Amino acid sequence: MKIVFDFGGVLFRWHPASFLARLWPHRVETLEQGAQLAARFFQNYGGDWGLFDQGLIGADEVVRRIAARTGWPLGDVAAVVRAVPDELMPIPATVVLIRDLRAAGHTLHFLSNMPEPFADHLSQAYPLAEWFESGLFSGRVKQIKPGAEIFAMAERRFEARPQELIFLDDHPANVDAALARDWQAFLFTDAASARRELVSRRLLNA
């Protein structure tokens, strides 16, 4: 079985509400406010940010577009974009899960919606080649989840039939897209529950 990991919110920390609360204390007093501003900023990873994720616009352009759309100062928006790479820190329990899966003999890959500059940062800062056999970043291949084409590209890159792939992602739409292509897939909420699910599928020992 080939196991495919999403990155943000699965392997790397990503909680936009608390992220914005730390960066914008002058604008965010509660996590609820942070969630509301995150929805405006990232547009559920569609809109401006989706184009950035897909590698169709660069960092300067996404900053300009978000500032123009929201009325937030250009410098404030740029500060958020600059801070994202350092926010993407590995989640220790997921790193342990990856090591245990590799020790059990499974081949691991990744499939991540990630703008190219952030993908470059992760590739340089962390041992992705040690954790994964291969992977796809949306910003590099110019396709994005939940679109069918990036899943088709992944099947070719991973040299696998859909039924041979099991996918962990924290966004229901991406899980549904994988299931629609006959991948096995489930929603990731945390490493402990993912481990239980993998044990139940006989991919790990309890």
UniProtKB/TrEMBL annotation:
Domain of life: Bacteria
SUPFAM superfamilies: HAD-like
Annotated coiled-coil segments of the chain: none
InterPro entries named in the record: HAD-like_sf, HAD-SF_hydro_IA, HAD_sf, PGP-like_dom2
Protein name (record): HAD family phosphatase
Species the sequence originates in: Pelomonas aquatica
